[in-house]
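Below is one such record:
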Amino acid sequence: MSHGPISTALLAYGMSGKVFHAPFLSAHPGFALRAVVERHQQRMAHDYSNVRSYASTAELLADSGIELVVVNTPNDTHFELAQLALQAGKHVLVEKPVATSTAQLQALHELGRTVNRHVLAYQNRRWDSDFQAVQRVVESGQLGQLLEAHFRFDRYKLALNPKKFKEEPQPGSGLLYDLGPHLIDQALGLFGQPLSAHKTLGANRPHTQVDDFFSLHLRYPQGLNVWLTSSLLVADPGPAYVLHGTRGSYQKHRTDPQEAQLLQGTSLRSPYYGREKAGQEGRLTLVAADGSRQTTADTAPVGDYLQLFEAVYQTIRHGQPYPIREEQLRWQSELLEMPASE
């Protein structure tokens, strides 16, 4: 097994490369950010002077010094580019969705085993502060037998996205494949594979060709029902997480600050990084045996996407199990693929 930092390359330096990958790969001592694909403008050198810019994916993959390739390109290219990287002997960290079909996903995992390389999913929202708070409450058992869970990820974007690939009806486009993997991964991480599922899609913005609303209803044992919902036409979002159990309820707004902080250039070393502001606490209401109720403010843990990269490092260098498991990705893909109700 190799030692030292993992020599890593990005396949793009747009918003995701600049915000969600490069800062963490540079901050974590287990990685050495070495290369990027930039077909038009070479912008990454301005931020990271030691990174080599390649004009094509083929040129980058021919670099024998690269061990890990981050596939941070449009959804419909993930499968092909991850496949090429694996065939070139690289590990891959692939943004969600890893592939646009279950068959493609299975093919990547089988290829990874054949060439002895890891296929790892970038599901950063597991390390959001708000979801970490929800996970802590669920695992504590304070709510008793959990009966309902509602997860929402809402935005207001009436105008169509100027990035045409997000608005054209092709594999991986639409809101379901954009925000759906986040919500589905969180639900699967908490509750596992559902007994059954029901999907509803909507296309409500003027002239849209893709879905901009979805709702998934997942049924679990012991009467647990989970709803995952997202819309691009919610002007005043309510709580992102609502849980009801036999002993109480919990609600939490979508308050993780990391994306906004990264866009503003906040340093990962800042004492404020990943910390929610005062007044954004969750609301935990518990019912005592005598029927009395007590509501308390629940402060979320610090959000930290660097933990995802730590997990990648531990998997590649030390063979530790990666937290986003292969079977969870398969369940996610099956839910994304399943037909919607008429």
